[in-house]
Request: fold
Amino acid sequence: MRKLELLAPAKNLELGKMAIDHGADAVYIGANRFGARESAANSIENIEKLVKYAHKYYAKVYITENTIFYEHELKQAQRLAVDAYNIGCDALIIQDMSLLEMDLPPIPLFASTQANNQTLEQVKFIENVGFKRIILARELSLKQIIEIAKHTNIDLEFFVHGALCVSYSGQCYLSCALTGRSANRGCCAQPCRSAYDLTDKNGKIIAKNKQLLSLKDLNLSAHLEDLINAGISSFKIEGRLKDASYVKNVVAHYHKLLDNFLNTNTDYKKSSSGTVTLMFEPNVNLSFSRGFTNYFIDGNRKKTASLNTAKSIGERIGKIMYVAQNYFVINNENSLQNGDGICFFDKRKKLCGTRINKVVGEKNFPASIENLKPEIIIFRSYNQSFEKSMKQKTASRKIKATIKFTDNDEKITLQATDQDKNSVMFEISQIGDTAQNTELAMNSIIKNLSKNDSIFSFNVEICSSRIPFYKASTINEWRRQIVELLLVEREKNYCRKQSKIIKNNIPLNKDKLDYTSNISNSLSAEFYKRHGVREIQNAFEIENSTKNKILMFNKYCIRYELGLCKHGHNEDLFLLNNRQKLRVSFDCTKCEMKILKD
Reply:
């Protein structure tokens, strides 16, 4: 049976546990160095705690070691890989090929989306050199994914939700060029979220003060089954910088969708254990988003930018029908509540916001009435009731198990078996007297053995010719002992996949690699030389020069976004922000866009 995996972000230990509780089959987390989100770093000790927690549910933990390494960092990068293996981590997500030249323990390697996994040729090479999974470029369509899956056997992972980089992953050097902060080193300054003026070559302004490079957030909720059929096995949620509310809500949302699919498709199974009970109704419209897009998944080019703001706008509520001196009325009665935060675009398309102090019937009394006019669309950027509920316990995850209670006049036998067929047993020589009230005694045994105070949800079977009487405290102690034994057995039987890289000389079929291959150390260069590359250019971060360098490679197109796409009209345009001037060139044959420093 093909296993499906919901892969969730873990900013830290606490949020990693939350993700698992809400249905994640695996989590990815950054260590103290070399993660593509520098501000989401964690100690090895805390990651080890997360591994132990996840493995109780047979869920997995992957460490993101997916930046490029400088020469003096190679030993530290190797040390992290060894530490990851030693604490029980299930895989490393990497970009820098130097790790394949090192003597590593048999920990599986996953090719990060930072490795620019766009083509079948790239995927086949990654598979042939020993990777166990590849994280595909977000820009791929279903048709392209199907073609890749048809010709490869490697496990395929794909992003289904969260923030989008406007550039192909691993192919953006804009932040490094403008600020010295490299995206390939985990410290992107996000210049794509800034506002720009767009001009033609004569300086004529086409668009003024717009977030021309800031995309909406990805949401492929409606395409999960399509992706499964296309060959994707791991469904990844972006968000290692997001808060607990986001993690709980979005993970629960996709868990429900995948569970619904698994309930009606018996050829598939989930890749971890346990049944999740949610104590709220997930709704991704209530979490951080810049609006949603399905990007290029169906092969069609659409409007994907959030041109007027890079901030979260939240849930659309309705249109203002009437504005009074200190309140307004919308066409969606009683939608807002006391304490809600709202935002809206004023007549100049500027994002404004305020808080709702009071709601009386259809009247909404905001903290400020300024700029609120009839016909303006109101969005709820902060849902007071929802966020309050997210601070409570919102999910429970239990592993189904059975306890058989047997009393044969000589000894008591307790045998516990969980849903993964792990089984333990212990015997007790303490024989109780036959109960005067057998129904009461039996109910006491069932009640106390099945108490809901562990990760197990026990069904109790009594297999006895007589029903003895035991104190509740005695039965509770038996339950605690059987739980401990079963947890140890589960841990012992957890199957961690191992994979040792065996070096080979399979050709890359490229004689020359330029700076876009992100080769920043001698071992990475050695890797590519071993695979037939003769000429290697240093990574952008090493050269530190923007001369004749493309700083961003995009499938997203500003011309199309602004309705300026005309066959044969592909003259360069220019982005201006403060004193920075960027040249935007268009390759209409490939339907791609490139950005350079002018």
